[in-house]
Amino acid sequence: MIEFVILLGVIGGWFIATTTLIAMLIFGKMWGLVGVPLLVLGVELNKFLKRRYMDVVVSSSPRAREIAKHIFEMNELIILSSYAAALFLYIVVQKYVEVIIKVPPG
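The structure assignment produced for this chain is given below.
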């Protein structure tokens, strides 16, 4: 199950980043707020899975519980950083478009 949780964090992070970036590039900067509900949903899903997993792992060793706790915290960081990365990539793409497309070569 823990492998599923890690995979869910990575895929969820990529989904949040790409959805936010595409919405911002197509519709404008304010559409980046579309990523905020996705971000909240991802964090809440991670917290729900953490509670559920920790209840199941009650009989395990304290070391296993600590490792699982750190994995869920890493998932949350992946999800949060993916949103920040989408905002950064939007700025980079806008600067690239401004320099390459709007300024004629020569």
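Interim note for the steering committee: DSSP finds three helices and no strands in the chain. Residues 62-102 form the longest helix (41 residues).
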